[in-house]
Amino acid sequence: MRIQLDGQVSFEVYCDPADREVGYEDDIHFGILETGPKELRMFQADETIILLTCDQAEHLAAALVAAAAASRSVPR
Hints:
four-stranded antiparallel β-sheet
């Protein structure tokens, strides 16, 4: 799944069991992709990937849901 934030930054999340190394359970890819002029980028690399376990992915998802709920509760 790719989530486009704006014209330059997107998140990509997917599971790739074939990429799992023996002894590790972190086969969930959480990537930050950035395009556009290098002088306007937040990150040095075009793509930064963090490997997560199922538990880590669930904690990240719960934290995002909690932050969204907190943001929605703030008067606009």
